[in-house]
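Run folding on both entries below.
>entry_1
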Amino acid sequence: MLGRSGILAVVVGLAVAPSAALAVSTPNDAASTHAYLLASYTALHTVVTTWSSAEADVRKLDLELHAECPLVGAGSPQSEQEQELSTEVAGALVASYSHTDGAALRAFVRAVTPLRWSNPSIARLARKLTQARRALGRLPIPDLCGDVRLWRAGGFGAVPATTHSYDQRVNAIEIKEIPLRLLAPYERPADRALSARVAHLSTRFSELEFVHGQDDWNMLLETLALNQ
């Protein structure tokens, strides 16, 4: 599953770190690093402190499914096709999260898009990150009831084309934050405390996502009577 709204996600591997250690910091690198850290802190702080709002929106989605198509997938076999429906449910959950955090998501993209670094690894990661978060913000909540009904009507054979295309769209969104260690050589002394706060909020986000994300996914699957 993708993380909540994509505000934080998987940190890229150690392979990119050595180039930062050899880089020469420029004023533009320092300014961009400060702006990125500030944007990350603001987004993370918003997501963590408003987590209850995202949970409320997921419960609202679950109530809508309860009202429209409770247990619509009952009797379906556990299969590769059901895995595609399960992925679609995960995408719906991510979309719900991203809609709740839409303002923070858009603010981050606006803040980071114009930033520039002399380090090509950082510049590439920043460009991909803003593109991915922009795509995440545009991700719709799919018609889960309609898609599971079509799947059931077809004898639980091939999933609808809408499910397949939605899963492809979700899987194409890859959120990778710029590793803080890669930015460290470009930090101003005053930015070290800000970087530490970003790291703390990142950990807090991961904890919240671990505790609640799986439960939310299971809740929606149970409402639709689908397996993971």
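>entry_2
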Amino acid sequence: MLRPRPNINKLAHCVHGGIDYAELKNLGISPEAILDFSISCNPFGPPPDIKEALANVSIECYPDSNASELKQLLAEKLNIATDNLIIGSGSSELIRLVAIAYFGPGDLVLIPQPTYGEYEIACHIVDAQILKQPVLGEPNFHLDTGEITDVIEKYRPKGIFLCNPNNPTGQYMTKEKVENIMSITSSRLFILDEAYIAFTENAWTSLDLVDRGNLVILRSMTKDYALAGLRLGYAIAAKQVISVLKRVCPPWNVNAIAQKAGINALNADSYLEECNTKIREARGFLIKELEHLGLSPLSSQTNFFLVKVGNATKFRQELLKRGFLVRDCTSFGLPQYIRLAPRTLPECQRLITAIKEVGVLSHAS
């Protein structure tokens, strides 16, 4: 029997938020009956004109492999050159492209914990070695700059993944901290994942760090404009780095519908700002109500946050029975925590009612 490379045999499934359709089928629950608080996408859906625009997309021809029109518009919005951009089928594809292009067997890659699981998967695919330090813990899960610089100087990893704001903790590093970490060496590749930057309060720009030549910035239009069913993201880096990523990028990696959706989303100038106002209102409501219930959410600088509930797996299951999906953070190594991202205010009110029911049941048992 043909066997894959040993490192592929060792690959584990990466757990994500979102609906597990097989799970719902086994429970006899319709997906349409679920309110999903487990994903951190824009809960207000895509800009209103997108669906109409997509109806006219030609699907009988191959899409533009360079996503030229989308890339040009995005470059103008960001005030950068198109040579500093590559468009991907979600940021997860771009994470794998970075690993394929820059890491190989035996290369050491630093991934502070807890964080997004796809970094580790991408490194395992190319048989790189992973260093899971430092481990960020309670009470605030803050990344200590001194600790991570010590780790980098000691182990000299070839790559460093930094999720900012971090998933699942919602902690956001200042520009000074990121610059201090990057200043240690210019020979390491830093991957700065800013998938949730659009929802982050008082966000700083990282674009002026790209000229250093050893930085890849990842962003997600999937999250910003609720395009999860299409998948759309982009990476910003020095021209030489983008050129390398293009060499390992599959042709036609972003389909025609996703490209058109991205163009229309970028042209909806005030949409994201309007959504953010409502998201912050709903987030504030959730935090206040959870605190009243004795479930104190952790401080977060973005749209999602952690809540300590005891047994996260059981808590999720009880809410799922009532039509609400939250993110069990056991896969992040945080079995006592769930992650919540706000939806509309009425939907958040319904979630709080369900959490009260779950609380009553747990006290009764």
